[in-house]
Amino acid sequence: MKIKGIKRGKTIELSEELNIPDAQEVLIEILDAQLINEEERHQKLKELFAISLEDRQEWVKIGEELDRERKADIEKQKHESTL
Predict the structure, then answer these.
(1) Pairwise CA distance, residues 56 & 48, whole Å
(2) What's the CA gap between 7 and 33, in Å, rounded?
(3) CA distance 18 to 70
(4) In a 3-state reduction of DSSP, which class is residue 5?
(5) Are 5 and 14 in contact (CB under 8 A)?
(6) With contact defined as beta carbons under 8 Å apart, do 3 and 13 qualify?
(7) Distance (Å, rounded) from C-alpha 60 to C-alpha 66?
(8) Helices (H), strands (E): how many in the chain?
(9) pLDDT tens digits, residue range 26-80?
(10) 15 Cβ contact list (under 8 Å, min separation 6)
(11) What is the spatial distance between Cα 17 and Cα 61, in angstroms, rounded to a whole number?
């Protein structure tokens, strides 16, 4: 299970409720979730815009297919909820 939290003093405030009993021992792995700095952001944007037109068109096709699948899933859920 992964969950986000914010450290305040010796307390970590979790972003959602956990379905575990009070006093349950847990292990915590700390990952630094800081935003990338401005220089890294600019470099990533340069890399994004450097991809070929063909690659960009492929990403657009993938996005369109994912959108169609999402809409089909929504319609399926609507249909199933009316049964």
Answers:
(1) 9
(2) 12
(3) 28
(4) strand
(5) yes
(6) no
(7) 10
(8) 2, 2
(9) 888 887 766 678 888 888 888 877 887 788 888 889 989 999 999 998 888 888 8
(10) 3, 4, 5, 6
(11) 38
Task: Give the number of residues written for the chain.
Answer: 83
Hey, how many other C-beta atoms are within 10 angstroms of the C-beta on 5?
14
Q: Give CA 41 to chain center in angstroms.
A: 18
Q: How far is CA 13 from CA 10, 16, 17, in A?
A: 10, 9, 10
Written as one letter, the residue type at 19 is N
At 69, which amino acid appears?
Answer: E
Q: Which residues contact 17 (CB under 8 A, 6 or more apart)?
A: none
Q: How far apart are CA 80 and CA 73, in angstroms?
A: 10
Rounded to two decimals, what is the model's pTM?
0.39
